[in-house]
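Suppose a colleague, Dr. K., hands you the sequence of a protein chain of 305 amino acids and asks what its three-dimensional shape might be. Before reaching for any lab equipment, you can write down a predicted structure in token form. Begin with the sequence itself:
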Amino acid sequence: MLVATAVSVLMAATPLLLAALGELVVERAGVLNLGVEGMMLAGAVAGFAATLASGSPHLGVLAAALAGMVLAALFALLILGLLANQVASGLALTIFATGLTALVGKPLVGQSVATLPPLWPEGLRALPWVGPLIFGHNLLVYLAWLLVPAVAGFLKATRAGTVLRACGENHEAAHALGYPVRRIRLLAVLFGGAMAGLAGGFLPLAYTPMWVEGMTAGRGWIALALVVFAAWRPWRVGLGALLFGGVTILQLHAQGLGLVAIPSQYLSMLPYLATILVLVLIHAGPWRRRLEAPACLGQPFLPPS
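The predicted structure, expressed as tokens, is then:
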């Protein structure tokens, strides 16, 4: 029971982790993208449709990442090319993707696809305790957790990561030093779109093998909150994803145990209530000063002519 619960928490945390790591890189570059939920929906419907058409969930994973990048490119065109407001553009992207995926995914409702297979052979997965917990997952689960040290190392220990952070902290100084601020932000936005697409694709290809309208169910907004909760640090994103994944599994177990005294609607609200509560607590606590966002987050940049 304990191992099964731990596995469930890891599965629930994986899409949050993928989307939040992508958004963390985007925000460290100085861009605020509130379209994560929309890009996740695009990744979910594209991954499901590609898998249904090809029979290969691995092609579905690729399609999910590409769908997220396409919407991210549209967002980048608005905020980097046309200097549109980042908050309004991100919200518009989510609204647009919500309607588009509902339309595109309507013929897909009621169908099912093959899910991503476990990465390790049956012999390792059959080991007691460690088998299902360590060797029983698919490619996207391992990718998500390997990205935590990879993103942390990139931002802290590489020249490219330092330049990206400079664009988020002081884009004018970065430009004066000769760095292409808008190009760097474009690459960051595309990376964030790919991660959000993978997070969305994880849902129909690994979590529930079907397409349901609005199946992301607010996970994109939780991922955005996770970035703030983690103070823009990848390791804390991993811990936060486990925390919110655990809350999600808790409400599912509570419903499964038949806690009739608590309406199921209240239990379904637990992950989102926990998100609000944690954000309020960390901003009211003594560590508030440590939660400073990148100085140029959300600010447009136009190179001087």
